Amino acid sequence: MQRREGSIQNRVKTHKAPHRLACLGALVLAFAAAACTPVPSSQQDPTAWMSAEELLSLGDKFLAAGDTGQALQYLVTAEKKDSKNPRIHYSLALAYAARRLPDQALKHFQKALELKPDYSEAHNALGAFYAEQGERDKASEHFQKALANPFYRTPEKPLYNLGRLMMDQGRYAEAVAYFDEALHFQSAYAEAHLYRARSLEALGRQAEARRAYKAAVTYGPQSADAQFHYGRICAAEGRTEEAIAAFRRVLRLAPGTPLADAAAVYLRRLEPQGQTP
């Protein structure tokens, strides 16, 4: 069988040789022509074939992961493909803000809102941006605009931000009212419980403050700040065991930080000598 197969192959070579030479010449010409043909841009740049929506999705994922440089590469390319998309400008604003480029961030926040005036997420983020810049009136204006949209799905965010603004101005009763509203929409909002507690404490409403701190550690058990303040108010009320447990959690959650150092000071006072870790 092997010998027969060999003979067939020999016959093919013998009778088809002129045709194969012609084919080989054609292939050489084809490769030469291909070498002179420009490489499609989609092969040079892998993002060239991607839609603006796909680039936006990738940019948002890198932004969420904290890689602002890579996020900006995708988002800038997305804007070139669809400069009228407010979501692209919103994500660009967030990326530039995270990159500490406030002028670029502001430009894209404003563009997003020019394209979509009722864009509540952008109003809330721009309000937070202005709050960081110390422009409280502008911040409050945009938080209120975010709330004006009845279809906004997370109104607790601008309500929380308004509460923080009131706290910064020492207007603690107003802050509590905003935090209460935020918790009406999201009862498990740990940060709202924490800052509500701090406002209540500033108003001298200690028992309510302790309960609010307890809610903060219940809904945000990984928050070292919440654990520390809960431990501190428990220590002040003589709830020693609860205070010790909270301060020990601070040491586990935030080792080597000033907060952990402060917790260790409390523990040295509260625990029998030699038991502080």
What is the fold's blueprint, element by element?
Elements: H1 2-36, H2 41-44, H3 52-64, H4 68-81, H5 86-98, H6 102-115, H7 120-132, H8 136-148, H9 156-168, H10 172-185, H11 190-202, H12 206-219, H13 224-236, H14 240-253, H15 258-270
Give keywords.
277 residues; mainly alpha; 15 helices; disordered N terminus
Structure description:
- Helices cover about 75% and strands about 0% of the residues.
- The protein has helices at about 1-35, 40-45, 50-65, 70-80, 85-100, 100-115, 120-130, 135-150, 155-170, 170-185, 190-200, 205-220, 225-235, 240-255, 260-270.
- The protein is globular, with a radius of gyration of 32 Å.
- The N and C termini lie far apart (about 85 Å).
Q: What coarse outline follows from CA principal-axis ratios?
A: globular
Specify the helix fraction band: over 70%
Helical segment count = 15
Biggest beta sheet summary = none
Uncertain segments are 1-37
| Amino- and carboxy-terminal Cα gap | 83 Å
Mean pLDDT: 86
Number of strands: 0
Class based on secondary structure composition and strand pairing:
mainly alpha
Oligomeric state of the chains present here: single chain
* Rg value: 32 Å
Taken as a percent bin, the fraction of beta residues is under 5%
Reading the helices and strands in chain order gives: HHHHHHHHHHHHHHH
